[in-house]
Amino acid sequence: MHSxxxxxxxxLKSMKDEALQGGGRKRIEVQHSKGKLTARExxxxxxxxxxxxxxxxxxxxxxxxGDGGGEYPGDGVITGHxxxxxxxxxxxxxxFTIMGGSLGEAHSHKINKIMDHAVRxxxxxxxxxxxxxxxxxxxxxxxxxxxxxxxxxVMASGVxxxxxxIMGPCxxxxxxxxxxxxxxxxxxxxxxxxxxxxxxxxxxxHQDITADELGGAQVHNEKSGVAHFAFPNDILCxxxxxxxxxxxxxxxxxxxxxxxLRDPIERTDPALDYLIxxxxxxxxxxxxxITSILDGAEFLEYQENxxxxxxxxxxxLGGQTIGLIANQPAVSAMLLTFLSFAWWTYLDSCPVxxxxxxxxxxxxxxxxxxx
Length: 371
Fold this sequence. Notes:
- The chain is α/β, with parallel strands linked by helices.
- The protein is about 35% helix and about 20% strand.
- It folds into 2 domains: about 5-245, 2-enoyl-CoA Hydratase, Chain A, domain 1 (Alpha-Beta Complex); about 270-360, 2-enoyl-CoA Hydratase, Chain A, domain 1, CATH 3.90.226.10.
- Strands 1, 2, 3, 4, 5, 6, 7 and 8 form an 8-stranded mixed sheet that branches. Strands 9-10-11-12 form a 4-stranded mixed sheet, sandwiched between helices.
- The protein starts with a helix and ends in a 10-residue tail after the last strand.
């Protein structure tokens, strides 16, 4: 006998199956051919297995059929929450196979929703960015949608950790939000951050420049300092995001996770007896000292290739997370440059994110204050 309820359930299942396919098999194959994972594959790698709960799977925007291919449930972004090593995380992942991951009104509503929930419950926010920018079919509404996200970036700053992963193009309005978050990860050879692309630059300045030279991972990790980490592929990038989360508290009212690595307090390292040379004009590598004193010799360095005469990062002492700042004698004879003063920003973030300690090592020869 014909059952309307059964028909409704079958229709709902069909819509969910369609949403899980993203932009379709052909576009997924193109994504893989570029060495990139899909939006769902990234979430599966980032979060604990089976922990992801999705929001608004079937939500569509006013122009989600913009290229004539019919409506796309989800509107080009996957949002929800899950866990990393058992700790609650809110995440959004832009789907480049659907209208190039462009941001429209419904797209932004989904991101705003998980950001609001994250602040309300006190959990980190992770954004996996792979977007061509604003959706021009929606006109000024798509630009206004960016403003809603930026406002939430500001309100969440210092309340919960915000992490951005640039895993594809991040152009136009899409690039401002990651610059306001606490940590930015980039993938080499496939991720770019710029307000306007190479073609616009050439039109205005008559200068030929590639996407990598304008806003690639190397530029932002070595010169601009906008990004903090760079990795060769999506898998390694997401693995390091999981590692970083383990050093951070969930919000500014909690302490960072305690992890006992069973490193004996009385442990000694004979190599330190020979680290500092007898000749004060000779340099040495401060990282040897850092890894020696930290629990398990584990050190997560922050902006490793930017202002290399200063070392910033996270480690543990007695199982407790610490933020560490040190001069690096092996680079520029430990002189402080204007770029190296970016560590003040890092130091300010330690109490804001409720990290336990900020440790400094060494004294700058051209600066009267002890570090």
